[in-house]
Design brief:
Length: 40
């Protein structure tokens, strides 16, 4: 599910630029932090 989200939605947000790109970065950071917390 996360992989599909990254391939589609987040990619589109990056391409849109501006505020959408900033939102995509925030989402990526949240996913990264969740994966680190679950790995401990």
């Amino acid at each position: 599910m996360v992989e599909n989200h990254l391939k589609t939605h987040v990619t589109e947000m990056f391409e849109a630029g501006g505020d959408e790109r900033a939102k995509a970065i925030d989402e990526l950071v949240q996913i990264y932090e969740l994966s680190r917390n679950r790995g401990e």
